[in-house]
Amino acid sequence: MKGDKLKEQDLCPPPPTQGLMKGDKREEQGLGPEPAVPPQPTEEEEALIEFHRSYRELFQFFCNNTTIHGAIRLVCSKHNRMKTAFWAVLWLCTFGMMYWQFALMFEEYFSYPVSLNINLNSDKLVFPAVTVCTLNPYRYNEIKSELEELDHITEQTLFDLYKYKFNTLLASPRGRRDLGGSLPHPLQRLTVLPPPHKARRARSATSSMRDNNPQVDRKDWKIGFQLCNQNKSDCFYQTYSSGVDAVREWYRFHYINILSRLPATSPSLQEEALGNFIFTCRFNQASCNQANYSHFHHPMYGNCYTFNNKNNSNLWMSSMPGVNNGLSLTLRTEQKDFIPLLSTVTGARVMVHGQDEPAFMDDGGFNLRPGVETSISMRKEALDRLGGNYGDCTKNGSDIPVKNLYPSKYTQQVCIHSCFQESMVKECGCAYIFYPRPKGVEYCDYRKHSAWGYCYYKLLGAFSTDSLGCFTKCRKPCRTGFSRCCPYRTITLSTIEEMELLNSTSSLRS
């Protein structure tokens, strides 16, 4: 029907027209038709928006929509393969350089770089602590009775080895069979087997250069002493190619055992009058007094005096350099009181250290010879290390698995010595006399601990190779302040009167 056809035409939306005239537009607005609704995508078309049929389409979509320079050229120039290849190579090179820069940035970041800042200041500083020792542990007259047998056997050994005769040696020296005397662990001369014939010929062929050192040692034997464990099941010889080294180490070994038996009330262990060793003491031209120093006894270096330590009420301050400022000491040394076979030098032992650090005279000290005036320059240095990811250091030693046996703050040397003493007590059952001993532990003596020498030399070898782990456990402190010092001037007195007056005197200026 005609009416039905008109109704059907009303249901279909009119097709969109382009280029309508102004009048037509007014007519449409006048008629008031509804705006055209965009067609809804089919199920297949909707899937194409979310997923691409191939990687080629995905790549083309990426190149058309990305903001990366040059990517659109890979699609636009697809009909020219040479041009496409050029842009592809250029695009890959730029991407490679970008990721290379990223790799460098991440590598630098995760390497935790640090910057080193050095500041030189000449401000007023706290003067460091200065420890001076007599270089003589005991007066020989006081300990001569304890050392008489040891000295006699040592003199006899030196006579047999090098025909060196002491003034105190007996007129009729004993035979070699009585060299050991009644002391345990006697010195023994061990025969060294000659090398094979081929080895001797190879050695003579390669030894074309003459050694500058004099050959004073015997090549057909070594000298040493035997050490065994508790049940004598394992023994070894502590030998030396040099007879002098062997005698000195053997003497030192027996001397340590004698020290452990001396009473704590020995006169040499008591504090001597300061005037017996130090004639004059001045700091910045002002005289010192008893409140400026403290005293302790070292088993090898004798009576030691520490000036300006942490126990002083008023620490010394220094701001002016020069020999007329700082600490000036005039020392007296008595060579006749030295133990002849133990002390090889005369003078004084000096060490400069921090107020809250112990004086390790073996590690950081140096000797001053008598009869001269020595000036020492010093420079203070402070070092801050970064912990965490930047380095392996400790703030105060609380995280170190080693107990501090020294009444001082944590330092690496304090930890290393405490670690060795801890191993001595654990493995040998006694304490080494050169380090502080824990409570309830005795010092080593072969009369009470017959195998301590065997244990000590075994531990010493393991300590040198870090088998004990002391160097691994004892990390460096994060903050370290130390003073570098070195003798830079030595003046020898020339006149006879001054030489006679200061023949046994050593002066220290710092």
TrEMBL record:
This is Epithelial sodium channel subunit alpha. Keywords: Cell membrane, Cell projection, Cilium, Cytoplasm, Cytoplasmic vesicle, Disulfide bond, Flagellum, Ion channel, Ion transport, Membrane, Sodium, Sodium channel, Sodium transport, Transmembrane, Transmembrane helix, Transport. Its main location: membrane. The gene is SCNN1A. This is one of the three pore-forming subunits of the heterotrimeric epithelial sodium channel (ENaC), a critical regulator of sodium balance and fluid homeostasis. ENaC operates in epithelial tissues, where it mediates the electrodiffusion of sodium ions from extracellular fluid through the apical membrane of cells, with water following osmotically. It plays a key role in maintaining sodium homeostasis through electrogenic sodium reabsorption in the kidneys. Additionally, ENaC is essential for airway surface liquid homeostasis, which is crucial for proper mucus clearance. It comes from the Eukaryota. GO terms for biological process: cellular response to acidic pH; cellular response to aldosterone; intracellular sodium ion homeostasis; multicellular organismal-level water homeostasis; sodium ion import across plasma membrane. GO terms for cellular component: acrosomal vesicle; apical plasma membrane; ciliary membrane; cytosol; external side of plasma membrane; extracellular exosome; motile cilium; sodium channel complex. It catalyses: Na(+)(in) = Na(+)(out). Residues 1-10 have a biased composition (Basic and acidic residues). It is a multi-pass membrane protein. The chain crosses the membrane at residues 85-106. It is found in: Apical cell membrane; Cell projection, Cilium, Flagellum; Cytoplasmic granule; Cytoplasmic vesicle, Secretory vesicle, Acrosome. PROSITE patterns: ASC (PS01206). GO terms for molecular function: ligand-gated sodium channel activity; WW domain binding. Belongs to the amiloride-sensitive sodium channel (TC 1.A.6) family. SCNN1A subfamily. Residues 1-43 are annotated as: Disordered.
